[in-house]
Write the structure tokens for this entry.
Amino acid sequence: MSNHSFNAQAATSLWQLWQHGAKTFPDAIALVDPHSKPPTRISYGDTFEQINAFGAGLRSLGIQFGDKVALIADNSPRWLIADQGILAIGAADATRSSQAERNELLYIIEHSDSVAIVVENLATLRKLEPELHNLPVKQIILLSDEDAPEGAYNFQQLLAKGASKDLGNPPIQRDTLATLIYTSGTTARPKGVMLTHGNFLYEVAAAQTVLQLQINEKVLSILPTWHSYERTFEYFIFSQGCTQIYTNLRTIKKDLKDHKPNYMVAVPRLWESIYEGVQKQFREQPASKQRLINFFFSNSQKYIVAKRTVQGLDVENINPTFGEKFKAAFVMAGLWAIHRLGHKLVYQKVREATGGNFKYIVSGGGSIAEHLEDFYEIVGIEILGGYGLTETSPITHVRRPNRNIRGGDGQPFPQTETRIVDLATRENVPTWQQGLVLIRGPQVMQGYYKNPEATAKAIDPQGWFDTGDLGKVSAWGDLVITGRAKDTIVLTNGENIEPQPIEDVCIRSAYIDQVMLVGQDQKQLGLLIVPNLSALEAAKLIPADSELANILPLLNEPKIRNLYRDELNREIQNRPGYSINDRIGVFAFLPAPFTIDNGCLTQTFKIRRNIICDRYQDIIVKMFSN
């Protein structure tokens, strides 16, 4: 650990993280929001002062150690100040986006026993009325500067109220509850995951063993800040004195160029969208230039595959023989000059579009597709993939810079144990064989709030947490997640199919934007496709500026359907471990993309399979009956 880093192992509360920052690098900039009006820049010293004032303000309103405060808001410096202010007095926050459905928000406020709420703005408050008045909520705080209703306070008023008061020296310990993070509730009522100060402090300390960041290094933030993945990563970077810069989907391209970040954490869908943007630019180049770009990428692909074999970083061949390494080294030597020239002529421009200063990007919230791993490695942007769940605070495994096995999900954090067991017997399975992933370690949640039955089902008496994921572990501890136990599609021939790996290869096609695999209790697999209109337009297969819903008849003409059939056959048959059961028997085009707004994606861009199946049930039935 470097001398400027926060000692998370010795700490008992997250408040000490900010105390350390204010003392060690008070003038370093902690928070930058270029999109607020006016733009926001707050130093570590000022952030610490505002956290203390916010917490003391809540305490002066009667909020006590152990109370729950609902925090219903989205990414901003004020979210962080509110979060840490609540935790600083030993209260716990129940977090959710202000964009969530009102019934879900009201349920969270009630279920969490929140005695106060902190909301994004007046509009969010009004969204919760009139039912809010029937709940035992004693205090209302707006994160905005709008005029607060009678008896409520806006952000500045609360800071002023707490400015001259103290935090009351609350008896916070590592097992003190810090937050309730409510699961998205795609299949049932959302459950409140109970995470402690110790859960988060363990994650910070463990992350420090993976990466050492420098004071003032820039980190771009786009994921929902209330989500455990983004939140834990933020706590980690603040332990190192970094500057967090807030962005969003509308401004990310500009923010990458303007702020030139060193690090960024996101989900596979975001890395896919950046990749798609680059591919679109490539398709707009003259034919001769496209051929040159394809030449470089084709040869660099062979180069990185050979390089992985030499370094023992190929997930399909983690322990290559001397002969395999020698042959791969020979291939590397022959392609090195072409790869370097590609870097100079093509890849450097791609890097510049992302700001040109990335040291690492971190991908989690789902396994990242192989073609994205290849693309980013070729252009020289290193991805550190990881694994975890909200219930594990969330990180349990992460790929290390010195063992970055693409296609894998990393090695365990210190003190984290992994078991792979048979789904039926719960007996351990042999190394590198698929089974159910169980986790035990200091990051595992206390349980689900007021839900002992669900807690007992998730965590056994020995402390093993059932992730619900399928995976395998190498002899060296490398984890590879292969699917979700409940997502497994069982065909009528009894074959079990994991949808994620097949979906990942399907979206390699330039003509496909999003997909979802279906086929439970069918003879063959089916695929729901959201087509990539810009690629179809570039190929002159559809008119320019087409609207998806309007061109479905055109997409179903034989010429285009044959194109998609060929694309799917090629990508799936080239998949390692291809089986005849993986073949897509039928497919259908959807009239709209999967988005957060239409309910088909979670806030972290994961597809909500049950929602999509329900919405497009008619299309699915028709697809399999033809």
Summary: The chain has a mean pLDDT of 95. The radius of gyration is 25 Å.
